[in-house]
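Loading example: each entry is read as two labelled lines plus one structure line.
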Amino acid sequence: MSGHSTYNPTNPVMKWVDDRLPLPRLMYDSFVSYPVPRNLNYWYTFGGILMIMMVSQIVTGIVLVMHYTPHVDMAFDSVEHIRRDVNYGNILQKWHQVGASFFFIAVYIHIARGMYYGSYKAPREILWMLGVAIFLIMMATGFMGYVLPWGQMSYWGAKVITNLFSAVPFFGEAIVTWLWGGFSVDNATLQRFFSLHYLLPFVLVGVVILHVWALHVTGQNNPTGVEVKSGQDTLAFTPFATVKDAFALCVFFLVFTIFVFFVPDYLGHSINYEEANPLVTPEHIVPEWYYLPFYAILRAVPDKLLGVVAMFASILVWFILPWLDTSKVRSATYRPIFKQLFWLLMIDFFILGVVGANPPEGWWITVGQIATVYYFAHFLILLPLVGLLETPRPLPSSISDAVLAKNAGKQPAVQPAE
Amino acid sequence: MSTAEAPDENRRDFLYIATGAVGAVGVAALAIPLIDQMNPSASVLALASIEVDLTPLEEGQSITVKWRGNPVIIRHRTAKEIEEAKAVPIADLPDQNARNANLADGSEATDANRVVDGKEQYLVQMGVCTHLGCVPIGNEGEYDGWFCPCHGSHYDTAGRIRKGPAPENLPVPQYTYLSDAKIQIG
């Protein structure tokens, strides 16, 4: 994919720059002339959407820091101050808060798309693993950001999650005290979370650059999972992919802004509008919705250490996904059994989310345990076996063949058989 | 030629190893303050002990006080609760360690080892669930003691874990009786 450059600047200034630092060339080759498979559908626009969401979170975050005070006595009030007194603060704060949720909506769709079309398979393993790393950094950043408003759920969420590390044998207590900088979640904890919440997004930018770099080395996967074979299979990134991404972004932002302007707290918890109180645990502690499936896995295991191990393993297993899936065929379109397993996994993940939102009582525990077992069985047992047992449907010989066959099928009356 | 180069190579090796060693020691020395600054500061460690007057605490009542940023639960237990706690065979307990900072580590988790002799009506313990740190709710759960709402751990009337994901009994902090009905925690 990364063929020779077609950049040929006519503007003398750009030529002068390009001869000294070929940054314009890099941008042109990466985002203008870059060839993308011509059959990319709208599921492929979420990478671009994620890029914009990341910038949006960083810009609003930097602005919020100009008004926020990271101190246990003032944090809660300073967030209220932003919402009530700062010019446009109500929108900026909500944009950042709801933006976190929509960032995760986009990333979940992006990950699911990668799983469906087998985008993790050779030669895209490192691209995929960088993506898993990005997801982990996003989770850490989102968690620490949620602590900053210092509401009840902020405080108790922080306490429960940092306490996960107390499950580490022998050093558990020392690690937790070190993370807290005290004997409980307190001012020292809030300040370091603030510091890291500001740092991690920039680490994220770095890993995203590696992710895009890896993408541009191997080229994009596509809905057929068949590699690009000739220039006929591709289109230039600009204007074709650019416009498609921009259109999808507009639709995505339409939904996003409806939430920001009209129901900004719909995805949150009302108890977080109560200031943190270290002496009273809210009746029902739940993390933000985007952590719920993993929280359900944590609670499904009755042992503290094993519960924590299972929770981390449920994401870390994605790192070895390229080697767990034994099938040579990438796209679920041509894998009838895998396609059903994919949707079962989606249902299972959704069930885990519902279980995570409910109290750990009665039959919720059983449902959570069954869903957890299925989750791991999908990756560790079903995927390796299905790859060996399944007979895939015949693959198209090239992307352009697949596109032409699809279009021919659409207009049978106008174009009778040749 | 080789004889002329030999001393040079030795010098180069020496410089190489010496520079590497200084660099490694420097990085290690720098890592210590960078890591240790996150541990509790002197002001956090210096947080004084607190005194609590138990006289207003009627039988069957509990109070929660804050010590080192954490809740400490003090309960004036009823005779029935003490009976219940004493009746439990040690073998039935998931955690058979008393977890009492005032006793030698590894003391048996009998009811007597969870309180002070002669003051067995007053149970003093951290209100921090040993699972993931939530504050357990009193007079709840299947064992008449405490119930943690976060992940469903049940503690009995002596604050010992009986059921659920928590691995240990609620810890008893270091405390002493200053007078008949006044304690100092810490």
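The mean pLDDT of chain B is 88.
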